[in-house]
Specification:
Hypothetical protein af1432; 18 helices
Length: 366
């Protein structure tokens, strides 16, 4: 590993000191704690774009997190960085997501607007720091500083100022480890490409639509020459196209970051943190391709009437549940009742729900 990679030697360690494991390094141990957590299992039943009952073949938060971890590990390995740490952060990066994807998050944030708001990144950190209860000596999973720092991808200044050392970088504009920066980019690569695929499978983004995206069309039209035109072949050609696109993105992220690190003459992890910009980045033309994907998906998938219908149903459910627990705080499970912080407790409980569980509770109230 490179000297500027995170390692057990330069790690800032855990809040509650623990004996070293004879079998695993600290970051492998963090990863295993995340995989054994109940919040991680619940990702299986949380929406990425399509709500759980829309079908079984779409991405969920769990499969998304696995894809992000796979991409992150590949980039970390190629750059001589700490693969275990990138994997850990990737597996945990969405733990704080509400049911029903961004619609759920927006609705909960709205409900919480007079009570400190709701940020899913901050919530992911809350899950691993406080809400998981599996150890007798402490709440949470007692992860290393570097895993926690990576999980807190974004944070408002207000929340950052309450978090001590982990929040400092949002106040003094420094950066997290390269391993955390990798997950950030792997997340965008994964969701942009897999949402194109899920959009295609759902029928919302047929070939005629996908071809309006230049990045897609360029690869598709090039590959199409080798395929006979029938439906089965069209599918394979779409998957091959997406595979080429994802390869190009990962390859560019790796090579361009290698170049940036070398040009900045980075030698230590402190130099990574204090550098004026992040060092894991796509080159400009490829970043533009990815931005085009994002704009295309917003216009054609995320705001499609079928997805919008799911979104508005989801918002209704979150708003109804919030007001129910606001009026019936006693009905909240004991684990979540921190009486002096009523609204935060409700947000913790609601954000931890799976799509299905939120639906069931909602039905039972009517
Ligand atoms: Mg994500």
């Amino acid at each position: 590993m490179k000297k500027y990679a995170v390692s057990e030697k330069n790690s800032l360690g855990r809040e509650y000191p623990e004996n070293k494991s004879p079998l695993r390094n600290d970051f492998q141990r963090d990863r295993d704690r995340i995989i054994h957590s109940s919040a991680f299992r619940r990702l299986m039943y949380k929406t990425q774009v399509f709500v759980n009952h829309e079908g079984d073949m779409f991405r969920t938060r769990l499969t998304h997190s696995l894809e992000v971890s796979q991409i992150s590990r590949g980039i970390a390995r190629s750059l001589g960085l700490n693969e275990d740490l990138s994997e850990t952060i990737a597996l945990a990066h969405d733990l704080g997501h509400t049911p029903f994807g961004h619609a759920g998050q927006d609705a909960l944030n709205q409900c919480m607007k007079d009570h400190g708001g709701f940020e899913h990144n901050y919530q992911s950190l809350r899950v691993v720091d406080k809400l998981e209860k599996r150890y007798s000596n402490f709440s949470g999973l007692n992860l290393t500083f570097e895993s926690r720092e990576g999980i807190l991808k974004h944070c408002s200044k207000k929340n950052a100022s309450l978090l001590g050392r982990i929040g400092e970088r949002f106040l003094n504009k420094t950066h997290p480890s390269l391993e955390a920066q990798i997950v950030d980019i792997a997340d965008s690569i994964a969701y942009n490409i897999h949402d194109l695929e899920d959009g295609y499978r759902s029928g919302i983004l047929p070939i005629s639509k996908l071809n309006q995206l230049d990045f897609f069309a360029k690869h598709y039209n090039y590959l199409k020459k080798d395929f006979d035109s029938n439906e089965a072949n069209e599918k394979v050609c779409v998957y091959e196209t997406l595979r080429h696109m994802i390869f190009l993105l990962i390859n560019d992220a790796t090579n361009n970051s290698k170049k940036l690190i070398s040009e900045a003459n980075i030698k230590t992890i402190d130099e990574v943190r204090n550098h004026k910009t992040t060092l894991i980045n796509l080159s400009e033309p490829v970043q533009n391709y990815l931005n085009d994907c994002r704009i295309f998906l917003r216009a054609n998938l995320y705001e499609h009437p079928r997805v919008n219908k799911m979104t508005s149903d989801a918002q209704r459910i979150i708003i109804d549940l919030f007001s129910y627990y606001e009026d019936n705080f006693k009905a909240l499970p004991n684990d979540y009742k921190i009486h002096e912080k009523k609204y935060r407790s409700i947000a913790d409980f609601l954000s931890g729900m799976t799509d299905r569980f939120a639906n069931e509770i909602h039905k039972s109230l009517n």
